[in-house]
Amino acid sequence: MSKVALIRCGTYNYEDVKEAVKRGIGLLGGINRFAKKDEKIVLKPNLLVADPPEKCVTTHPSVFGAVAELFLTTGAKISYGDSPAFGSMAGAAKKAGLAEVAGRLGIEEADFKNGADIYFEKGKQNRKFIVAKALLDNDAVISLPKLKSHAFERFTGAIKNQFGCVPGMLKGEYHVKIPDPYNFAKMLVDLNSFVNPRLYVMDGIHAMEGNGPRGGKPRQMNMLLFSEDPVALDATVCRLIGLDPEFVPTTKFGMEYGMGTYLESEIEIVGDDLDSFKDDGFDIKRSPLRTYKAKGFSRFINNRFVPKPYILEDRCVKCGVCVNMCPVDPKAVDWFKGDKGKVPVYNYDNCIRCYCCQELCPESVIKLKVPILRRMFKR
């Protein structure tokens, strides 16, 4: 039986969050179950990009600080880190408010910049990875995901948070090599199995709905979640927002690969009443993901059925992040005739539907359009 602690916390007031974190970890057996004196523990928040806390893109500094402070009481040596999609970890941590908290607590940055080649014999689909050196320098990882919607995988939570353990621009290579969202999810599950965090603490006090994981809207959910089982944790959140856990590939394959369970009968909820958190109005796509194949006739058909990204031209600031982050060659989104003074344009014949452009647009002006044929067939 997997256990998920669900704790109500309606504010990021530091003392309130500290009390909620202490209670949640206490319900799982207490902090000394997860760290010992002199162990090296690295905290892995979600630092997708350098955005301020109020945008709900990153793990909130109050949650990060409360968890770090509690782990410091064990006598363990605590560090923290993540590898943003672009830019430096130091810059992202500063903008997100984590660097200030880390400095106050005397917590150093772990090495998420340099990579190390590893071979993971237990991997089901992927056995070779390049991971942040910090994973090999520490005894255990504590994962601090943020509750957010996600265009490519429907939902980003406990399992997907470990994709930040792949250094920098190498993440784009995985999208090129594995454009199918189901196979990509299998890779994420293999990666999570290798990282094997000792504990997951999800920041769901304010979540992100809609055009996530960067361009969506904050939504108050008033909860922190704690578990040793990332599948059970993610599945619990899915049920709270009216999303079938089987429609989230990372959850589906997480269970199939034996990493945890999404079955309600095998999950024990402790803490506060689960029904009191349910929010069926949460803006997230609740239909199954559709595989995209970018070759030949399949490409022709899928271009007319699979949602495609597009730019709101009147709001585009022409920063070029979408162009820089497009992982394919030739690029699926590029400057119009090389003119950086004009809005970038898409060549959908090159697009693999990884949605990296939509995910990382700093102005949230890249949306997803459902083709008219799909809307007609759906009706």
List keywords for this structure.
379 residues, alpha/beta, Rossmann fold, Alpha-Beta Plaits, 2 domains, 10-stranded mixed β-sheet, two-stranded antiparallel ribbon
Question: Explain this structure to me?
Answer:
It is a single chain. The protein is an alpha/beta fold and 379 residues long. It has two domains: 2-277, Rossmann fold (3-Layer(aba) Sandwich); 296-378, 2-Layer Sandwich (Alpha-Beta Plaits), CATH 3.30.70. Helix content is 30%, strand content 21%. The protein has 13 helices and 16 strands. The protein has helices spanning 14-27, 61-72, 89-96, 98-105, 134-137, 170-177, 181-195, 230-240, 249-256, 296-302, 321-325, 356-360, 372-378, and strands at residues 2-8, 40-45, 77-80, 108-109, 115-119, 128-132, 140-144, 146-150, 154-156, 199-209, 217-227, 267-271, 308-311, 333-334, 345-346, 366-369. Strands 1, 2, 3, 4, 7, 8, 9, 10, 11 and 12 form a ten-stranded mixed β-sheet that branches. Strands 5-6 form a two-stranded antiparallel ribbon. A two-stranded antiparallel ribbon has the order 13-16. Helix 2 (61-72) links the parallel strand 2 (40-45) and strand 3. The longest helix has 15 residues, at 181-195. The radius of gyration is 20 Å and the shape is globular. It starts with a strand and ends with a helix.
